């Protein structure tokens, strides 16, 4: 094997090996075999009943997508594996008398439910359908399988509009006066096959292929191409799945769940994916193929009912589920088919679960001895914790219940009813909150599901497309609300009692109970927030059980994390709340927020002052107010560090609006009654007006241009710290100079600050140790960090401004103007204001941290931009060696959890 080849890709003597039999792989080869192929191989290795088959690797897919052609050896490798499969099964693909049929299914490394292509029953043709009927002894089954193949192949491979097949199927049921497809007889299905073939000919411009090998080859190519469909790319962006992974293709011998009442198909979970509770969870559908379950087109029965339907298969399935959960040490999501009493396993994977289930399951598995605490910490994440902190419906409120469905994905969602994805997107972009209501969703609804606050369907269960995708996205979802009649053409739903809900009416859905309400239901705080606030403790009921699980995992995260977590807080109230949420100090106190409201006029007078005495009068007025603010803040955070940033407003925030003032002056002049004060003010505003205030007179520049401004603030800080010390308190204060671009700026302000602190010490007789540092928020500051560290005791990276100045973006403008296009085109995977740009902004942070500590080894390093509470960014800050992150109070638990996960060396499975 040459050194430049991927070590995870096996190579034959002729080159790369592109096809693996199910007996050759294992669960650790997901990069190569995809999740489905790797797990089919693992189940085969475990001796479970898996239909024989083989997997075409992701490398083959990537080669095809890069070049537009399949790798040269692929056809021969597929032929060799197909020959081996035919020998094993004792029949040939599509032979007339006793045909071997196969499925061709996608299988990427990370689960992408419904986003890519699957084709079942490949090998059926006008000739072989009779052989299948004879072999099975069931004409209806054979023709049902054939119509399914043409329908699925026509839609996914040939690009025929799927509604044309659905409309023809509905017409056939209407003509027969039946409501479900299982009531159609063989003769009806035979006519439907003829109709379907005509649709293919008319829409695709070619006949449905009768050669089984051509069917298989075209289906394989279609699966490759489905990796780059719009819906697949959108899903990957939503789930932050890399676009360069490609998908594997699984070719599996068919087993049939549509052979009558002793056959069926289902999906099972080893634990409830919505709550995490142990038990029998899943859906089963008699006389059906697998796609019927996940599509939600027929309502299933609970998996527990299988015990009465087929006791032998049920018992075997329960045993296999226990085997798989013990082997994978996690919740497993299983697809299975029963063919005339014979159980077959078609897929397993580590199952998607809700946020609450993730925390419960992690602690349950620790208690069962399957995983340790370090692994449990890797099984949850900050995004899930944030979901648990959202409000829930007030159970005591007066409500009008419309109906009830299956609680598929928890949460409390309120919005206007919409009945198609286009409307959901359109209204959402106009600022409306919407609930997407469908009979059932399909992959084409993904855009609308993303735009909606929640999803409601009248069909399907916990394993339907809507439920699985909603859980993966953390969206509230209620499925299978059968009593609600959804009419997408009339754009309304009808509830029992004749209550009609038109599009635009407000509805509320509770994904924890499955209840659907008319109107807006009030919300109350989450029990997890009440726990962090100290108002709730672990007990016996369901909410307390969740709180207990969160408590255990948070306690472990706090024990192992290296990064400390501080809060961005500007007043005592926010500081106290942050402390209850676990903050270990304040990383950013924005003093400009202290000058809003009635104090704004004082700052305006200070900035516009023409004479020294005017400026000094304004400063004298502000000093006691500032001191009182700091006394309250230092008391609230006593014993913990408080980083106070000196005034850093863009100038326009404290000046009168130039347009408004100009109009006022013009009106006064037109009345021949000019206001001298307004005239003077307008002249001053014109003098100070800036085209780009974010890059103008602010931060350290303001402190250097307006004499006494920063020294007033430093004096207020020092006097407040002295007063707190005299009251036997323990103030730990750090003064931060903002927007420094050169060490000379910092040196001047530092010298003035030290002089003021010395004066306060002398006046009060209190020894003060106030650290002086700076905010690194300009590229030049990051590039000259070694020099700046000579005058700074700490750096705090202001990644909001650093992102703006590195990218040349104005955050106030660009997110609304072109970020959506950048995200859709894949230029961004995520907004650089949401998650730190590691290659650009992150590189400056890394280099500045290294350079600063080279000058001053004891330099304290933190970050106080919004990235401080972003899960992915927290891992980066841990990696580059920062001492703390600072974020808004509500995000503190998330940052604590992610700091623990970053520090943990567990190699737990990726539960994307």
UniProtKB/TrEMBL annotation:
Entry keyword annotation includes Aminoacyl-tRNA synthetase = no
Q: Which UniProt keywords apply?
A: ATP-binding, Kinase, Magnesium, Metal-binding, Nucleotide-binding, Pyruvate, Transferase
Q: Which EC class is this protein assigned?
A: transferase
Reaction(s) catalysed (UniProt annotation): pyruvate + phosphate + ATP = phosphoenolpyruvate + AMP + diphosphate + H(+)
What Enzyme Commission number(s) appear in the record? Answer: 2.7.9.1
Q: Which GO terms describe its molecular function?
A: ATP binding; kinase activity; metal ion binding; pyruvate, phosphate dikinase activity
What positions constitute the catalytic site?
465 (tele-phosphohistidine intermediate), 864 (proton donor)
Q: List, for all copies, the residue spans of the domain called PEP-utilising enzyme mobile.
A: 432-514
Stretches assigned to the Pyruvate phosphate dikinase AMP/ATP-binding domain: 31-68, 72-299, 307-356
Report any Pfam family annotated for this entry: PPDK_N
Q: Please report the stretch or stretches of sequence annotated as the PEP-utilising enzyme C-terminal domain.
A: 548-900
Chain sites annotated for binding substrate:
590, 645, 777, 798-801
Q: Which residues bind Mg(2+)?
A: 777, 801
At the top level, the lineage of the source is Bacteria
Cofactor or coenzyme needed: Mg(2+)
Which InterPro entries does UniProt cross-reference here? ATP_grasp_subdomain_1, PEP-util_enz_mobile_dom, PEP_util_AS, PEP_util_C, Phosphohistidine_dom_sf, PPDK_AMP/ATP-bd, Pyruvate_phosphate_dikinase, Pyrv/PenolPyrv_kinase-like_dom
As for family, the record states: Belongs to the PEP-utilizing enzyme family.
Q: Which NCBIfam families match?
A: PRK05878.1, pyru_phos_dikin
Give the protein's recorded name.
Pyruvate, phosphate dikinase
Q: Which organism is it from?
A: Streptomyces alfalfae
Lineage, uppermost ranks: Bacteria, Bacillati, Actinomycetota, Actinomycetes, Kitasatosporales
